[in-house]
Protein backbone atom coordinates (compact mmCIF):
# COMPACT_ATOMS: atom_id res chain seq x y z
CA UNK A 1 0.00 0.00 0.00
CA UNK A 2 1.37 3.42 -0.95
CA UNK A 3 1.93 6.16 1.63
CA UNK A 4 -0.76 8.29 -0.04
CA UNK A 5 -3.36 5.51 0.19
CA UNK A 6 -2.43 4.74 3.79
CA UNK A 7 -2.84 8.40 4.77
CA UNK A 8 -6.19 8.43 2.97
CA UNK A 9 -7.47 5.47 4.96
CA UNK A 10 -6.31 7.07 8.22
CA UNK A 11 -8.10 10.33 7.38
CA UNK A 12 -11.29 8.47 6.48
CA UNK A 13 -11.14 6.51 9.74
CA UNK A 14 -10.76 9.66 11.83
CA UNK A 15 -13.48 11.46 9.89
CA UNK A 16 -15.93 8.60 10.36
CA UNK A 17 -14.91 8.25 14.00
CA UNK A 18 -15.61 11.93 14.65
CA UNK A 19 -19.07 11.70 13.07
CA UNK A 20 -19.90 8.62 15.14
CA UNK A 21 -18.55 9.96 18.44
CA UNK A 22 -19.98 13.49 18.21
CA UNK A 23 -23.16 12.77 16.26
CA UNK A 24 -22.44 15.53 13.73
CA UNK A 25 -19.87 16.03 11.00
CA UNK A 26 -18.41 19.40 11.98
CA UNK A 27 -15.56 20.97 10.07
CA UNK A 28 -13.01 18.49 11.47
CA UNK A 29 -14.96 15.45 10.32
CA UNK A 30 -15.77 16.95 6.91
CA UNK A 31 -12.13 17.92 6.35
CA UNK A 32 -10.93 14.41 7.17
CA UNK A 33 -13.54 12.73 4.99
CA UNK A 34 -12.75 15.01 2.05
CA UNK A 35 -8.98 14.68 2.47
CA UNK A 36 -9.22 10.91 2.81
CA UNK A 37 -11.37 10.55 -0.31
CA UNK A 38 -9.03 12.79 -2.34
CA UNK A 39 -5.96 10.89 -1.14
CA UNK A 40 -7.46 7.52 -2.07
CA UNK A 41 -8.59 8.83 -5.46
CA UNK A 42 -5.12 10.23 -6.14
CA UNK A 43 -3.53 6.95 -5.07
CA UNK A 44 -5.86 5.03 -7.40
CA UNK A 45 -5.06 7.32 -10.34
CA UNK A 46 -1.36 7.03 -9.62
CA UNK A 47 -1.57 3.24 -9.50
CA UNK A 48 -3.54 3.17 -12.76
CA UNK A 49 -0.95 5.32 -14.53
CA UNK A 50 1.82 3.04 -13.36
CA UNK A 51 -0.07 -0.02 -14.56
CA UNK A 52 -0.56 1.35 -18.09
CA UNK A 53 2.98 0.64 -19.15
CA UNK A 54 3.24 -2.73 -17.49
CA UNK A 55 2.40 -6.11 -18.96
CA UNK A 56 -0.55 -8.10 -17.68
CA UNK A 57 1.74 -10.60 -15.98
CA UNK A 58 3.59 -7.79 -14.21
CA UNK A 59 0.62 -6.60 -12.16
CA UNK A 60 -1.44 -9.78 -12.05
CA UNK A 61 0.33 -10.92 -8.86
CA UNK A 62 0.04 -7.60 -6.93
CA UNK A 63 -3.59 -7.29 -8.02
CA UNK A 64 -4.38 -10.78 -6.79
CA UNK A 65 -2.62 -10.12 -3.49
CA UNK A 66 -4.51 -6.85 -3.08
CA UNK A 67 -7.86 -8.48 -3.82
CA UNK A 68 -7.07 -11.28 -1.39
CA UNK A 69 -6.17 -8.73 1.28
CA UNK A 70 -9.43 -6.85 0.78
CA UNK A 71 -11.43 -10.09 0.91
CA UNK A 72 -9.57 -11.18 4.05
CA UNK A 73 -10.20 -7.81 5.73
CA UNK A 74 -13.91 -7.94 4.86
CA UNK A 75 -14.21 -11.51 6.12
CA UNK A 76 -12.37 -10.62 9.32
CA UNK A 77 -14.56 -7.58 9.91
CA UNK A 78 -17.79 -9.52 9.37
CA UNK A 79 -16.54 -12.35 11.55
CA UNK A 80 -15.54 -9.98 14.35
CA UNK A 81 -18.91 -8.23 14.20
CA UNK A 82 -20.77 -11.55 14.35
CA UNK A 83 -18.62 -12.78 17.24
CA UNK A 84 -19.12 -9.61 19.27
CA UNK A 85 -22.87 -9.71 18.57
CA UNK A 86 -23.03 -13.30 19.77
CA UNK A 87 -21.26 -12.47 23.05
CA UNK A 88 -23.53 -9.50 23.75
CA UNK A 89 -20.54 -7.25 24.45
CA UNK A 90 -21.16 -3.64 23.39
CA UNK A 91 -18.88 -0.67 22.92
CA UNK A 92 -20.34 2.83 22.91
CA UNK A 93 -17.78 5.54 22.25
CA UNK A 94 -20.28 8.17 21.17
CA UNK A 95 -20.56 11.50 22.95
CA UNK A 96 -22.64 11.13 26.14
CA UNK A 97 -22.92 7.39 25.36
CA UNK A 98 -26.12 8.03 23.46
CA UNK A 99 -26.61 4.31 22.72
CA UNK A 100 -26.79 3.44 26.41
CA UNK A 101 -29.67 4.18 28.76
CA UNK A 102 -29.02 6.85 31.34
CA UNK A 103 -29.50 6.35 35.06
CA UNK A 104 -32.37 8.84 35.00
CA UNK A 105 -34.29 6.84 32.36
CA UNK A 106 -33.80 3.58 34.22
CA UNK A 107 -35.02 5.21 37.42
CA UNK A 108 -38.13 6.60 35.73
CA UNK A 109 -38.99 3.13 34.40
CA UNK A 110 -38.43 1.55 37.80
CA UNK A 111 -40.76 4.03 39.49
CA UNK A 112 -43.56 3.33 37.00
CA UNK A 113 -43.43 -0.44 37.20
CA UNK A 114 -44.58 -1.97 33.92
CA UNK A 115 -44.93 0.34 30.92
CA UNK A 116 -46.36 -0.50 27.50
CA UNK A 117 -44.95 1.16 24.38
CA UNK A 118 -46.70 1.18 20.99
CA UNK A 119 -44.67 2.18 17.93
CA UNK A 120 -46.75 3.51 15.03
CA UNK A 121 -44.63 3.48 11.87
CA UNK A 122 -44.85 3.06 8.12
CA UNK A 123 -43.14 -0.13 6.88
CA UNK A 124 -40.38 1.71 4.98
CA UNK A 125 -39.76 4.57 7.41
CA UNK A 126 -35.95 4.56 7.97
CA UNK A 127 -36.32 6.45 11.26
CA UNK A 128 -38.16 3.52 12.81
CA UNK A 129 -34.99 1.42 12.92
CA UNK A 130 -33.28 3.61 15.53
CA UNK A 131 -36.56 3.85 17.45
CA UNK A 132 -36.82 0.04 17.53
CA UNK A 133 -33.26 -0.17 18.86
CA UNK A 134 -34.07 2.35 21.59
CA UNK A 135 -37.28 0.55 22.56
CA UNK A 136 -35.35 -2.72 22.57
CA UNK A 137 -32.89 -1.28 25.08
CA UNK A 138 -35.78 -0.09 27.24
CA UNK A 139 -37.47 -3.49 26.98
CA UNK A 140 -34.23 -5.20 28.06
CA UNK A 141 -34.68 -3.64 31.51
CA UNK A 142 -37.69 -5.92 31.97
CA UNK A 143 -40.01 -3.00 32.68
CA UNK A 144 -41.26 -2.17 29.18
CA UNK A 145 -43.45 -4.17 26.79
CA UNK A 146 -43.25 -3.16 23.14
CA UNK A 147 -45.68 -3.74 20.31
CA UNK A 148 -45.75 -2.22 16.84
CA UNK A 149 -48.62 -1.13 14.63
CA UNK A 150 -48.41 -0.15 10.97
CA UNK A 151 -49.50 3.44 10.49
CA UNK A 152 -53.10 3.51 9.27
CA UNK A 153 -53.78 -0.02 10.47
CA UNK A 154 -55.43 1.02 13.74
CA UNK A 155 -57.19 4.31 13.00
CA UNK A 156 -59.17 4.23 16.23
CA UNK A 157 -56.02 3.96 18.39
CA UNK A 158 -54.28 6.64 16.34
CA UNK A 159 -57.16 9.04 16.91
CA UNK A 160 -57.37 8.24 20.61
CA UNK A 161 -53.66 8.85 21.23
CA UNK A 162 -53.26 11.75 18.79
CA UNK A 163 -50.78 10.01 16.50
CA UNK A 164 -49.87 12.57 13.84
CA UNK A 165 -47.42 10.62 11.70
CA UNK A 166 -45.01 7.75 11.29
CA UNK A 167 -42.36 6.93 13.90
CA UNK A 168 -44.55 7.92 16.84
CA UNK A 169 -44.37 6.15 20.21
CA UNK A 170 -47.26 5.98 22.69
CA UNK A 171 -46.39 5.11 26.30
CA UNK A 172 -49.06 3.62 28.58
CA UNK A 173 -48.88 3.17 32.36
CA UNK A 174 -51.40 3.26 35.17
CA UNK A 175 -54.30 4.13 32.88
CA UNK A 176 -52.48 7.20 31.54
CA UNK A 177 -50.79 7.77 28.18
CA UNK A 178 -48.16 10.03 26.66
CA UNK A 179 -47.53 10.43 22.93
CA UNK A 180 -43.95 11.02 21.74
CA UNK A 181 -43.74 12.41 18.20
CA UNK A 182 -39.93 12.43 17.96
CA UNK A 183 -38.73 9.43 19.94
CA UNK A 184 -35.29 9.87 21.47
CA UNK A 185 -34.18 8.82 24.92
CA UNK A 186 -34.57 12.43 26.05
CA UNK A 187 -38.17 12.79 24.85
CA UNK A 188 -39.13 9.34 26.16
CA UNK A 189 -37.58 10.21 29.52
CA UNK A 190 -39.73 13.33 29.73
CA UNK A 191 -42.83 11.31 28.82
CA UNK A 192 -42.03 8.72 31.50
CA UNK A 193 -41.74 11.48 34.09
CA UNK A 194 -45.06 12.91 32.97
CA UNK A 195 -46.65 9.48 33.40
CA UNK A 196 -45.55 9.32 37.02
CA UNK A 197 -48.06 12.04 37.96
CA UNK A 198 -45.84 12.67 40.95
CA UNK A 199 -45.86 16.11 42.55
CA UNK A 200 -42.68 17.68 43.82
CA UNK A 201 -44.46 20.60 45.40
CA UNK A 202 -45.09 24.21 44.51
CA UNK A 203 -42.37 26.46 43.08
CA UNK A 204 -43.13 30.19 43.29
CA UNK A 205 -41.29 32.42 40.83
CA UNK A 206 -40.91 36.05 41.88
CA UNK A 207 -42.35 38.71 39.54
CA UNK A 208 -42.58 42.49 39.64
CA UNK A 209 -38.98 43.75 39.58
CA UNK A 210 -37.89 42.87 36.05
CA UNK A 211 -37.21 39.21 36.72
CA UNK A 212 -36.93 36.62 33.96
CA UNK A 213 -40.28 35.71 32.39
CA UNK A 214 -41.27 32.03 32.52
CA UNK A 215 -43.98 32.59 29.91
CA UNK A 216 -41.56 34.06 27.35
CA UNK A 217 -40.64 31.54 24.63
CA UNK A 218 -38.04 33.83 23.02
CA UNK A 219 -34.35 32.85 23.30
CA UNK A 220 -33.91 35.24 26.21
CA UNK A 221 -37.04 33.99 27.99
CA UNK A 222 -37.42 31.23 30.54
CA UNK A 223 -40.35 29.15 29.29
CA UNK A 224 -38.00 26.18 28.94
CA UNK A 225 -37.16 26.40 32.63
CA UNK A 226 -40.86 26.39 33.51
CA UNK A 227 -41.42 23.30 31.34
CA UNK A 228 -38.42 21.53 32.88
CA UNK A 229 -39.63 22.25 36.41
CA UNK A 230 -43.08 20.91 35.54
CA UNK A 231 -41.50 17.78 34.06
CA UNK A 232 -39.82 17.22 37.43
CA UNK A 233 -43.20 17.48 39.14
CA UNK A 234 -43.23 21.09 40.35
CA UNK A 235 -46.36 23.18 40.08
CA UNK A 236 -45.05 26.57 38.95
CA UNK A 237 -46.82 29.69 40.18
CA UNK A 238 -46.05 33.40 40.17
CA UNK A 239 -45.30 35.40 43.31
CA UNK A 240 -45.95 39.10 42.70
CA UNK A 241 -43.59 40.97 45.01
CA UNK A 242 -44.82 44.51 44.39
CA UNK A 243 -47.60 44.09 46.97
CA UNK A 244 -45.20 42.92 49.67
CA UNK A 245 -47.41 39.89 50.33
CA UNK A 246 -46.13 37.01 52.43
CA UNK A 247 -44.67 33.96 50.72
CA UNK A 248 -47.52 31.39 50.78
CA UNK A 249 -47.24 28.56 53.28
CA UNK A 250 -47.52 25.96 50.51
CA UNK A 251 -44.31 27.20 48.88
CA UNK A 252 -41.79 24.37 48.64
CA UNK A 253 -39.43 26.57 46.67
CA UNK A 254 -39.02 30.24 45.76
CA UNK A 255 -37.10 31.18 42.61
CA UNK A 256 -35.71 34.65 41.97
CA UNK A 257 -34.61 35.11 38.35
CA UNK A 258 -32.23 38.07 38.39
CA UNK A 259 -34.45 41.07 39.27
CA UNK A 260 -33.37 44.04 37.14
CA UNK A 261 -34.81 46.59 39.56
CA UNK A 262 -34.36 46.80 43.34
CA UNK A 263 -36.93 44.76 45.21
CA UNK A 264 -39.17 46.64 47.62
CA UNK A 265 -38.25 46.47 51.29
CA UNK A 266 -41.58 44.76 52.02
CA UNK A 267 -40.79 42.02 49.48
CA UNK A 268 -37.31 41.45 50.90
CA UNK A 269 -38.70 41.33 54.44
CA UNK A 270 -41.32 38.76 53.38
CA UNK A 271 -38.62 36.64 51.74
CA UNK A 272 -36.46 36.91 54.87
CA UNK A 273 -39.36 35.69 57.02
CA UNK A 274 -39.93 32.80 54.62
CA UNK A 275 -36.31 31.72 54.98
CA UNK A 276 -36.34 32.16 58.75
CA UNK A 277 -39.15 29.62 59.08
CA UNK A 278 -37.35 26.96 57.05
CA UNK A 279 -38.02 28.19 53.52
CA UNK A 280 -36.10 27.35 50.33
CA UNK A 281 -34.69 29.79 47.80
CA UNK A 282 -32.91 29.47 44.46
CA UNK A 283 -31.58 32.90 43.48
CA UNK A 284 -30.04 33.90 40.15
CA UNK A 285 -27.92 37.07 40.18
CA UNK A 286 -26.24 39.06 37.42
CA UNK A 287 -23.01 41.09 37.55
CA UNK A 288 -23.61 44.83 37.62
CA UNK A 289 -27.18 44.50 38.96
CA UNK A 290 -28.23 45.42 42.50
CA UNK A 291 -31.59 43.87 43.26
CA UNK A 292 -31.55 43.82 47.04
CA UNK A 293 -31.06 40.06 47.07
CA UNK A 294 -27.31 40.56 47.42
CA UNK A 295 -27.36 41.84 51.05
CA UNK A 296 -30.01 39.25 51.95
CA UNK A 297 -27.81 36.44 50.63
CA UNK A 298 -24.78 37.94 52.40
CA UNK A 299 -26.61 37.67 55.72
CA UNK A 300 -26.99 33.96 55.00
CA UNK A 301 -23.27 33.57 54.27
CA UNK A 302 -23.49 33.85 50.47
CA UNK A 303 -21.87 37.23 49.87
CA UNK A 304 -21.34 38.12 46.21
CA UNK A 305 -19.05 41.05 45.34
CA UNK A 306 -20.31 43.09 42.40
CA UNK A 307 -17.58 41.94 40.05
CA UNK A 308 -17.26 40.02 36.80
CA UNK A 309 -15.47 36.68 36.81
CA UNK A 310 -12.75 36.68 34.15
CA UNK A 311 -11.50 33.20 33.38
CA UNK A 312 -8.64 33.05 30.83
CA UNK A 313 -9.27 29.32 30.44
CA UNK A 314 -12.46 30.18 28.51
CA UNK A 315 -12.16 31.59 25.00
CA UNK A 316 -14.23 34.16 23.14
CA UNK A 317 -17.86 33.10 22.70
CA UNK A 318 -21.05 34.74 21.46
CA UNK A 319 -19.14 37.79 20.25
CA UNK A 320 -17.91 38.50 23.78
CA UNK A 321 -14.25 39.03 24.68
CA UNK A 322 -12.20 36.06 25.85
CA UNK A 323 -12.62 35.02 29.46
CA UNK A 324 -15.96 36.62 30.35
CA UNK A 325 -18.09 33.52 29.67
CA UNK A 326 -16.71 30.81 31.96
CA UNK A 327 -16.88 27.21 30.84
CA UNK A 328 -16.91 25.52 34.24
CA UNK A 329 -15.51 22.05 34.82
CA UNK A 330 -14.61 22.15 38.53
CA UNK A 331 -17.27 20.98 40.99
CA UNK A 332 -17.65 20.15 44.66
CA UNK A 333 -18.39 16.56 43.75
CA UNK A 334 -19.36 15.67 47.33
CA UNK A 335 -22.33 18.04 47.17
CA UNK A 336 -25.59 16.47 45.90
CA UNK A 337 -26.16 19.31 43.40
CA UNK A 338 -22.95 18.33 41.58
CA UNK A 339 -23.69 14.60 41.60
CA UNK A 340 -22.63 13.12 38.27
CA UNK A 341 -20.84 16.28 37.11
CA UNK A 342 -17.11 16.16 36.48
CA UNK A 343 -14.41 17.64 34.27
CA UNK A 344 -15.94 16.00 31.18
CA UNK A 345 -19.42 17.41 31.92
CA UNK A 346 -19.07 21.15 31.71
CA UNK A 347 -21.52 23.97 32.35
CA UNK A 348 -21.64 27.28 30.51
CA UNK A 349 -22.05 30.70 32.18
CA UNK A 350 -22.76 33.85 30.17
CA UNK A 351 -21.01 36.52 32.30
CA UNK A 352 -21.09 35.64 35.97
CA UNK A 353 -20.34 37.01 39.39
CA UNK A 354 -18.68 35.03 42.16
CA UNK A 355 -19.52 34.19 45.76
CA UNK A 356 -17.56 34.21 49.00
CA UNK A 357 -19.28 31.49 51.07
CA UNK A 358 -18.91 31.84 54.83
CA UNK A 359 -21.24 30.18 57.39
CA UNK A 360 -23.04 32.78 59.52
CA UNK A 361 -23.32 30.22 62.36
CA UNK A 362 -20.89 27.43 63.29
CA UNK A 363 -23.49 24.72 62.56
CA UNK A 364 -24.40 26.10 59.13
CA UNK A 365 -23.03 24.35 56.05
CA UNK A 366 -22.21 26.80 53.29
CA UNK A 367 -19.96 26.02 50.32
CA UNK A 368 -19.23 26.62 46.68
CA UNK A 369 -20.60 24.04 44.26
CA UNK A 370 -19.36 25.14 40.80
CA UNK A 371 -16.03 26.89 40.32
CA UNK A 372 -14.09 28.77 37.69
CA UNK A 373 -10.64 27.58 36.68
CA UNK A 374 -7.79 28.43 39.11
CA UNK A 375 -6.58 31.13 36.70
CA UNK A 376 -9.68 33.32 37.10
CA UNK A 377 -9.83 36.76 38.70
CA UNK A 378 -12.47 39.41 39.38
CA UNK A 379 -12.87 42.61 37.32
CA UNK A 380 -15.35 45.48 37.20
CA UNK A 381 -18.68 44.39 35.66
CA UNK A 382 -18.37 46.81 32.72
CA UNK A 383 -14.68 46.28 32.07
CA UNK A 384 -15.21 43.92 29.14
CA UNK A 385 -17.33 46.41 27.19
CA UNK A 386 -14.84 49.27 27.00
CA UNK A 387 -12.84 48.29 23.93
CA UNK A 388 -14.11 44.84 23.07
CA UNK A 389 -10.89 43.23 24.23
CA UNK A 390 -10.17 41.04 27.23
CA UNK A 391 -10.91 42.82 30.52
CA UNK A 392 -7.78 44.29 32.10
CA UNK A 393 -6.62 42.59 35.24
CA UNK A 394 -6.93 44.97 38.21
CA UNK A 395 -3.89 45.53 40.37
CA UNK A 396 -3.85 43.07 43.22
CA UNK A 397 -6.48 40.77 41.68
CA UNK A 398 -5.77 37.22 42.78
CA UNK A 399 -6.17 34.11 40.68
CA UNK A 400 -8.34 31.52 42.37
CA UNK A 401 -11.13 28.97 42.04
CA UNK A 402 -14.01 31.45 42.26
CA UNK A 403 -17.39 29.90 43.17
CA UNK A 404 -19.98 30.55 40.43
CA UNK A 405 -22.70 28.66 42.32
CA UNK A 406 -22.93 28.34 46.10
CA UNK A 407 -25.34 26.58 48.44
CA UNK A 408 -26.15 26.65 52.14
CA UNK A 409 -28.06 24.63 54.73
CA UNK A 410 -29.11 26.32 57.96
CA UNK A 411 -30.77 24.89 61.07
CA UNK A 412 -33.25 27.45 62.42
CA UNK A 413 -35.72 26.71 65.25
CA UNK A 414 -35.89 23.02 64.47
CA UNK A 415 -36.30 23.59 60.73
CA UNK A 416 -33.82 23.56 57.88
CA UNK A 417 -33.47 26.44 55.46
CA UNK A 418 -31.84 25.79 52.08
CA UNK A 419 -30.50 28.38 49.65
CA UNK A 420 -28.78 28.01 46.28
CA UNK A 421 -27.31 31.09 44.59
CA UNK A 422 -26.19 31.32 40.95
CA UNK A 423 -23.87 34.07 39.74
CA UNK A 424 -25.58 34.08 36.33
CA UNK A 425 -29.21 33.89 35.21
CA UNK A 426 -28.72 33.47 31.46
CA UNK A 427 -27.53 29.89 31.88
CA UNK A 428 -31.19 29.07 32.69
CA UNK A 429 -32.64 30.98 29.72
CA UNK A 430 -34.09 29.25 26.68
CA UNK A 431 -30.91 30.05 24.75
CA UNK A 432 -28.55 28.31 27.18
CA UNK A 433 -30.59 25.97 29.40
CA UNK A 434 -29.84 22.91 27.25
CA UNK A 435 -26.24 23.92 26.60
CA UNK A 436 -23.86 21.23 27.84
CA UNK A 437 -25.02 20.28 31.37
CA UNK A 438 -26.77 23.50 32.37
CA UNK A 439 -30.18 21.81 32.57
CA UNK A 440 -28.87 19.18 34.98
CA UNK A 441 -27.18 21.78 37.17
CA UNK A 442 -30.24 24.05 37.40
CA UNK A 443 -32.79 21.28 37.98
CA UNK A 444 -30.59 19.46 40.48
CA UNK A 445 -30.17 22.71 42.41
CA UNK A 446 -33.96 23.11 42.56
CA UNK A 447 -34.41 19.47 43.61
CA UNK A 448 -31.79 19.79 46.34
CA UNK A 449 -33.32 23.00 47.65
CA UNK A 450 -36.73 21.27 47.77
CA UNK A 451 -35.18 18.29 49.63
CA UNK A 452 -35.64 15.87 46.75
CA UNK A 453 -32.09 14.53 46.59
CA UNK A 454 -33.17 11.03 45.40
CA UNK A 455 -34.43 12.60 42.15
CA UNK A 456 -31.10 14.26 41.35
CA UNK A 457 -29.69 12.74 38.14
CA UNK A 458 -27.90 13.40 34.88
CA UNK A 459 -30.62 13.46 32.24
CA UNK A 460 -30.34 12.04 28.72
CA UNK A 461 -29.38 14.67 26.19
CA UNK A 462 -31.92 15.47 23.48
CA UNK A 463 -30.96 14.47 19.94
CA UNK A 464 -32.96 15.72 16.97
CA UNK A 465 -32.16 14.43 13.48
CA UNK A 466 -28.81 13.16 14.70
CA UNK A 467 -27.78 16.56 16.03
CA UNK A 468 -26.97 17.10 19.67
CA UNK A 469 -28.82 20.02 21.17
CA UNK A 470 -25.88 21.98 22.55
CA UNK A 471 -26.90 25.49 21.48
CA UNK A 472 -23.80 27.49 22.27
CA UNK A 473 -23.64 30.79 20.34
CA UNK A 474 -21.05 29.14 18.13
CA UNK A 475 -23.04 25.94 17.52
CA UNK A 476 -20.03 23.78 16.84
CA UNK A 477 -18.02 24.87 19.90
CA UNK A 478 -18.27 21.59 21.76
CA UNK A 479 -18.18 19.58 18.54
CA UNK A 480 -14.95 21.37 17.64
CA UNK A 481 -13.57 20.55 21.07
CA UNK A 482 -14.38 16.87 20.58
CA UNK A 483 -12.93 16.80 17.06
CA UNK A 484 -9.74 18.64 17.93
CA UNK A 485 -9.13 16.09 20.66
CA UNK A 486 -8.48 13.62 17.81
CA UNK A 487 -6.10 15.93 15.94
CA UNK A 488 -2.93 15.05 17.88
CA UNK A 489 -3.33 11.26 17.70
CA UNK A 490 -4.17 11.56 14.00
CA UNK A 491 -1.04 13.63 13.33
CA UNK A 492 1.10 11.10 15.19
CA UNK A 493 -0.46 8.21 13.28
CA UNK A 494 0.08 9.95 9.93
CA UNK A 495 3.72 10.62 10.79
CA UNK A 496 4.21 6.97 11.74
CA UNK A 497 2.54 5.84 8.50
CA UNK A 498 4.79 8.06 6.39
CA UNK A 499 7.89 6.83 8.23
CA UNK A 500 6.82 3.21 7.70
CA UNK A 501 6.17 3.79 3.99
CA UNK A 502 9.58 5.43 3.48
CA UNK A 503 11.39 2.66 5.34
CA UNK A 504 9.52 0.06 3.28
CA UNK A 505 10.46 1.68 -0.02
CA UNK A 506 14.10 2.27 0.93
Amino acid sequence: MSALALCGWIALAFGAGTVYAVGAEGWFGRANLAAGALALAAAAVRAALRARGASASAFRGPLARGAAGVALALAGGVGLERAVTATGVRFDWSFERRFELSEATRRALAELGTVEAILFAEPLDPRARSTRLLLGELAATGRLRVRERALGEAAEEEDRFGVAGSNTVVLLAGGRSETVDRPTEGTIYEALYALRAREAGVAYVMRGAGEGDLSDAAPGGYSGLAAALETEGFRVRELVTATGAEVPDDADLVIALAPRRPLREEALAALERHLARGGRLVAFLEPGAQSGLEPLLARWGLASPDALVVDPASGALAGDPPGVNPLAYSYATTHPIARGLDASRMTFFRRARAFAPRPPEPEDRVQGVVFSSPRAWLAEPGAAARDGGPPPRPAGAEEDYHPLVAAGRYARDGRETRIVAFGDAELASNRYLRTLYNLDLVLNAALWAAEREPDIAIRPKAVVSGRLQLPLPVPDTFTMFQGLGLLLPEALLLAAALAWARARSA
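The chain has three domains: 3-93, 99-196, 201-381+397-459. The chain is about 35% helix and 20% strand.
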